[in-house]
Amino acid sequence: MTGALDWLERHRGGAAPVDVLAFADRLPAVEPGTLIGRWRGSELPTGSPLDGLLPAHRWYGKEFLDADTVHPLLFRDRAGVPRPVDPALAPLALLLRAPAPARSAPARAAFATVRPLLATRRPTARVRRLEHRGVLTAALVYDRLPVVDAFRQVTPDVLLGLMDARGLEAPFAFVLERDG
Question: Would you say residue 61 lies in a domain?
Answer without folding.
Answer: yes
